[in-house]
Every structure is written in C-alpha cells, then in structure tokens.
Write a structure and sequence with these properties.
Order of helices and strands: EHEHHEHEHHHHEHHHHHH
Radius of gyration: 19 Å
Shape: globular
CATH topology of the domain at 5-95 and 165-205: Rossmann fold
Strand content: 5-15%
CATH superfamily of the domain at 5-95 and 165-205: P-loop containing nucleotide triphosphate hydrolases
C-alpha cells in the first residue's frame, strides 16, 4: 500500500488533531505513527521502508500520514513530487505569531531550546538574514538532517520558528510542483468554530463520504508537557524519548500528560507579539491576496484586551 495524501503541516497548527479526526472516517487510513518524517529524515531507507507505514491499510479510499515539518521544506516537496506526483496535500494555518510561540514553548519544554522566545526569534531572524540556511535541494536536505543532531545548547543550531509561519512561501514552492486541486488549505480556527463544515470539506477533497460526522472531536496533542519531557530527555535523550512516546499506548500518554501538566504556561507579552508580527505581516498580506481571504483577526491590537 502507498499513501495518496499527506497532512503537511505546518507544526503547531492542529496537525495532530487533524490526523486523529481524519482517521475516524471509515474510508480513511492514517498511519499509526503520525509523523513518519520519511521524506525529511529517513529518505535513505528507501520507498519500501516508507510504505511499511501503510501496510495495515485495507480497502480505504484515502491513505495518508502527517508530518508537519514537510510544509516548509522545499527538498521534501521535490521528493514527494518525484515518487507520488498525484499526492494530495493538506495545509492547516493559524496565526503565525501564536504558531511560533507554541513551537517555542514545545521546544523549550523538551529542553531542546534554551533561549527565551525573543532571543530564539532573533537568532532565527539573524540566521535567515546572514547565513546560508536554504532548505532547497540536496544541500538543504543535508542541512536539515544535521540540524537534528543532539546539540540543544548550541545557540547557532538551525531554528525554524519563522520559516514555519511563512505560509505564502510554502504555498508558492508547493504550488510550483503540484496542481491547485491537489492542495487543500484550511485554518485552525475553523476546526473550533466550523468543525463539521471544515471536516466535510476535507473529506470532499479526499474523495470520501463528505457527510460523515466525526464522533470524537477532542483536541489532540501528542507531545508531553515540559516537566515530563525534560525528565525523559535527561534519561533517554531527545531521540530516545521520541521513540518511546511513539510506541506508548494512548491511555498512558494521557495519564502522563495529566500528571505532569503545568499550572501556569508561559504567556506571550504584547511587546513580543508586536515584535514577531512585524516579521510575518508582509507574508500575511500576500496570503490574504493569494487566498482572497480576510485575516485581519490575526493582526495584534496595540494594547492587550482591546
């Protein structure tokens, strides 16, 4: 069996929830391991290895996986195009400032990020301005693999808080490789405010029964909390923790998350929100024009609560 759709991300834009929601449809098979990361990290293992993720699929019409980082990796788009030119791709976007902050919180919670949010964004911004951080072609693939080595304290390692929120750029390089009808765009807020309608559109895109109502609408996040991650990473290492988490039954994951959940998560200050919005605002304006969509609700107010 081989896949015919991928939820390509970006990270921290409800991809875990989408994977779970889509998998409830009787005509959709989603990989047991949500993030195969095949086209980004394990490509050298070959296509036979990749298709083992879908070997349990039976007569489902749509077969797919979810790897959020695919969204901002042009070399991944090339690889998907080469092997599956008919692949259907799903992108789910959210406010890019909130997305970047959520990504930072996850990395900081895991212990793979040691800088404050502002510091991490500035490093990322400087890398984009001064360094050769292109993720195109074979050099980009090598750079991405190298960036995933264990070097959490290395302030110069590749950060992608900004790249993960440049949605117009993503659509441009995927759009150069795939037809418009192979790409489906949705928004994270629509999964909250227009859930059934949004899922119906996704089902229609995947050519399955669009009238199916998802029975379990629970918001899903497969990442452990900060406390759990830091402890596990100290014992098993970052990669070891990820491998253990992937194999762990859901009921154990849920109990660990409940036991380790932080009472007061970090808050994004208005000062930082405005600072980061200034990085994304031009791309958001381009996205509005590209999609003919009003995204004014993403724009921050000058004062909190206004």
């Amino acid at each position: 069996m081989h896949p015919n759709f991928i939820v390509a991300g970006p990270p921290k834009c409800s991809s875990s929830s989408l994977h779970y929601y889509l998998g409830q449809h009787p005509d959709i098979y989603t990989s047991k391991i949500k993030e195969t990361r095949f086209f980004s990290l394990y490509y050298e293992k070959g296509m036979a290895f990749y298709e083992t993720f879908f070997q349990e699929a039976k007569n489902e019409i749509a077969i797919g996986e979810t790897t959020p980082s695919y969204s901002f990796l042009p070399f991944v788009a090339d690889r998907i195009k080469e092997h599956y030119p008919g692949m259907r791709l799903i992108f789910c976007f959210r406010n890019p400032v909130d997305r970047a902050f959520s990504s930072w919180r996850m990395q900081y919670g895991r212990g793979t990020e040691t800088k404050t949010f502002r510091e991490a964004i500035l490093i990322n911004k400087n890398q984009l301005a001064n360094d050769n951080v292109s993720l195109e072609g074979s050099e980009g693939a090598d750079r991405w693999i190298k960036s995933h080595e264990d070097h959490a304290d290395d302030a110069t390692r590749l950060r992608t808080y900004i790249q993960g929120g440049l949605y117009t750029e993503m659509l441009e390089f995927y759009g150069q490789r795939f037809e418009d009808d192979q790409i489906k765009i949705t928004f994270a807020e629509d999964l909250i405010h227009k859930f059934d309608e949004t899922m119906s559109g996704l089902f229609r895109f995947l050519k399955v029964d669009e009238n199916f109502i998802v029975p379990n609408k629970e918001i899903v996040n497969f990442n452990f909390s900060r406390s759990a991650n830091k402890l596990a990473n100290k014992i098993f290492g970052v990669k070891g923790t990820q491998r253990i988490a992937e194999k762990m039954p859901d009921f154990i994951k849920n109990k660990m998350k409940a036991a380790m959940r932080e009472k007061e998560p970090e808050k994004l200050s208005m000062e930082d929100r405005l600072f980061v919005w200034d990085i994304f605002k031009d791309d958001v304006e381009k996205l509005e024009k590209l999609l003919h969509t009003d995204l004014s609700h993403w724009r921050p107010k000058e004062q909190p609560g206004v």
